[in-house]
């Protein structure tokens, strides 16, 4: 097969490209330039897509003796990932930009261009497994990234390749060192790639006008204070609420709900964060129609797993949890698993 290897400049994508070549495929490496100002998108282990990353990817391609190109995706990334990220926070929701990048950039924009150029598949360094077109969890549970791939359609999965799915990270780094790849010990990227400082609140405040509102006790209805905008909060947040007095019982308060129209942020005790049901929209479903039981769902990239039963509708999934989850926010994705198999996903629109 002709395989386009997406090479971020990190160790995972470099080894994925190497394994694709070892498997006998005709491999071409491509680095995605996602920032109009690439020098601003890495601070140590934070961020990605810098000039440094592009150069590291090129060096790895040279060692692997594969052709290498840089594709400018900055405008598409801004339109499909960054702007929706800002809009979701302004609407009082909590988005997952890594998941949307996989959906909109790597396996839509890049895959569309790749297939138009005659490639059969796109290979990435994600830790997940594909068997006969079925997406499954990675063998290494600590590195499993099937959650952020759960939005991919059957057609996208049919043109995807995840060569690292059966390997632990330690094995991948050791292999990179054996191959002489300069990224063997390069730190993994953390946090949101387009906010390398890690200051999400500062990033949002520079793009969303201040719209003051009230902080309200969800139990008593009392106004406890004011805030500068709903974009500064997410469900489950404890710190940075700006409250000058504790709850009557001395216990900490958490964000329980966000109302973007009234600009009201509700706070209350931690047990009020418990969620037992989810309503969703924009489903992607690979499993049987109707309903499924004895499945598990995941609502965050790391953690947030619970047993559940799911009713499948054309407009979304109705999820009943077998055990409560805390800190679940509209805007997050829920991914449904049967064992290690991904059955589908949807975006959470409401919780109860």
Automatic annotation (TrEMBL):
**Chain spans, region Interaction with tRNA:** 143-145
| Limits of the tRNA-specific 2-thiouridylase MnmA-like central domain | 202-268
Q: A single GO molecular function, which one?
A: tRNA-uridine 2-sulfurtransferase activity
Name the reaction it catalyses.
S-sulfanyl-L-cysteinyl-[protein] + uridine(34) in tRNA + AH2 + ATP = 2-thiouridine(34) in tRNA + L-cysteinyl-[protein] + A + AMP + diphosphate + H(+)
Which InterPro entries would you find in this protein's record? Answer: MnmA-like, MnmA-like_C, MnmA-like_central, MnmA-like_central_sf, Rossmann-like_a/b/a_fold
Chief location: cytoplasm
The answer to whether UniProt assigns keyword Ion transport to this entry is no
What SUPFAM superfamilies does this protein map onto?
Adenine nucleotide alpha hydrolases-like (SSF52402)
Q: What EC number(s) does the entry state?
A: 2.8.1.13
**Superkingdom in the source lineage:** Bacteria
UniProt keyword tRNA-binding, yes or no? yes
The record lists ATP as bound by 6-13, 32, 125
Q: Show the active-site residues.
A: 101, 193
**Domain tRNA-specific 2-thiouridylase MnmA-like C-terminal positions:** 278-348
UniProt-listed HAMAP family? tRNA_thiouridyl_MnmA
Function as written in the Swiss-Prot or TrEMBL entry? Catalyzes the 2-thiolation of uridine at the wobble position (U34) of tRNA, leading to the formation of s(2)U34.
| Protein name stated in the entry | tRNA-specific 2-thiouridylase MnmA
Which organism does this sequence originate in?
Answer: Actinomycetospora aurantiaca
> Encoded by which gene?
mnmA
């Amino acid at each position: 097969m002709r395989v386009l290897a997406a090479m971020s400049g990190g160790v995972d994508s470099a080894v994925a490209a190497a394994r694709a070549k070892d498997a006998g495929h005709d491999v071409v490496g491509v680095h995605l330039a996602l920032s109009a100002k690439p020098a601003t998108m890495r601070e140590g282990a934070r961020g990605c897509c810098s000039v440094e990353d592009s150069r590291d990817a090129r060096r790895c391609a040279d060692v692997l003796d594969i052709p290498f190109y840089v594709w400018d995706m900055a405008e598409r990334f801004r339109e499909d990932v960054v702007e929706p990220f800002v809009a979701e926070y302004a609407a009082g929701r909590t988005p997952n930009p890594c998941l949307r990048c996989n959906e909109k950039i790597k396996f839509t924009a890049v895959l569309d261009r790749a297939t138009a150029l005659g490639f059969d598949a796109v290979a990435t360094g994600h830790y997940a497994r594909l068997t006969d077109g079925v997406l499954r969890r990675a063998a290494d549970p600590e590195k499993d990234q099937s959650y952020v791939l759960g939005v991919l359609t059957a057609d996208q999965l049919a043109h995807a390749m995840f060569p690292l799915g059966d390997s632990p990270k330690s094995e991948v780094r050791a292999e990179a060192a054996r191959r002489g790849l300069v990224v063997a010990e390069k730190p993994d990227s953390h946090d949101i790639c387009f906010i390398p400082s890690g200051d999400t609140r500062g990033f949002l405040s520079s793009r969303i006008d201040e719209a003051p509102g009230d902080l309200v006790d969800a139990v008593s209805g009392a106004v406890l204070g004011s805030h500068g905008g709903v974009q500064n909060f997410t469900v489950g947040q404890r710190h940075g609420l700006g409250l000058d007095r504790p709850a009557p019982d001395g216990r900490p308060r958490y964000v329980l709900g966000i109302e973007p129209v009234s600009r009201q942020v509700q706070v209350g005790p931690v047990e009020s964060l418990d969620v037992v049901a989810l309503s969703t929209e924009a489903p992607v479903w690979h499993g049987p129609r109707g309903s499924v039981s004895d499945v598990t769902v995941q609502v965050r990239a790391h953690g947030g797993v619970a047993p559940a039963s799911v009713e499948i509708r054309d407009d979304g999934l109705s999820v009943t949890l077998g055990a409560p989850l805390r800190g679940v926010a509209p805007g997050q994705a829920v991914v449904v698993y049967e064992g290690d198999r991904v059955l589908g996903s949807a975006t959470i629109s409401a919780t109860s």
